[in-house]
Amino acid sequence: MSIKSTVFGLSLLLGASAHAETQVAALDSDQESSPTQSYGATYGAYVRGFLVANLQVRFDVSQENYHLKADAKAAGIGRLFSSTRGRTTSYGRFDGEALVPQGVSIEWMQDDEVKGARIGYTDGAPSSFHSDYPLPPERTPKNPVDITTVGTGSNDPFLSMLEQLGAQGLDNVCTASKRMFDGRRLSLLVPEGSQLKSADEHKFNINSPVIECQSRWQPIAGYSDETLQEAKGYEMIDSHFARIGSTKFAAPIKITTKTRYGSFTVEAKSFFRITDIKNQ
C-alpha cells in the first residue's frame, strides 16, 4: 500500500471543494418539516504518524432526514504523492429510528479530470451502482457482489463511521456488527469490546464522555485475492466516539488501526455547531 494509493483511496471514501452548498433530501411539499441541526468537524489522516490528508465533514439531521458530506484533500507529505481531492455525500430519511439510505455520491478530481461514482437505493436497499473508476486487473474481485442480493440493513462505509445512540446513550455504541457496502464490496465491522470513559478519564479535549471501541473488519464479497490476503494482516480497529450535540448520533474523534504497512489514523482536530436552519 503506497502513500499515493492511500490518499487516493481516502479521497474516494471521504471525499472535492469544501465550499459547495449542502442539499438536504427533499420532503413532500405538504409535510411540515422539523428544524435541521447542522454540525461540522475537521479531521487529519495520518500514515505512520505523517499527515497525508485533511477532511472537512458536515452532518445535517432532522427528525425526517439526514445528510452527511465530507471533503478530502491531500495534505502534508500526501501532496508529494497525489493532488487528488474528493467529496462523498450520503443522504436518506428515517423510518422511526431506522436509517433508510436514499443515495450516495462520490466525486473526485484526478489529473485535472472530474470523475464520480453513485449508489442508488430502493426502499433502503442498494439497487444501482455506477463508477467512472475501472478496477485494475489486480483488484478484480474473486467473488463479485450481485447488488440485487445485498438488501436492506447495509450502509456505505462513510455513513458507517457514525454510531446511533439508543436509550442508553453511548452504552449502545459498538454493540452490534455493521454491514457495509460501497457499490462493489460487502464487508462486516464486528465489535470486540468497548469501554465508556467520563470527561475526567479520557485524554481528548472535549467536556463529555467518550466510548472506546475495538472492532475487526471482515471482508465478505467483492474483494480481490490481494485484498483478502492483506486483510489477514490487519489488526484490531481502535475507535473513540463522542455524542454529536443533542442528536442521537455519535461521531468518531479518533480511529486507529495497524496493518503490515504501518499505522493508519484519522483524528478529529475540531468539532463545531454550524447553525439551526428550517427546511423550506
User: How many β-strands, per DSSP?
Assistant: 15
Helical content band: under 10%
Oligomer: single chain
Low-confidence stretches: 1-31, 276-280
Q: If you compute it from the alpha carbons, what radius of gyration comes out, rounded to the nearest whole angstrom?
A: 18 Å
Which sheet architecture does the biggest sheet show? 15 strands, mixed
Supply the number of helical segments: 2
Write down the domain tally: 1
Derived from helix and strand composition plus strand pairing, the structural class reads mainly beta
Beta-strand percentage range = over 45%
> What is the first-to-last residue Cα distance?
46 Å
User: What is the chain-wise order of helices and strands?
Assistant: HEEEEEEEEEEEEHEEE
Shape call: globular
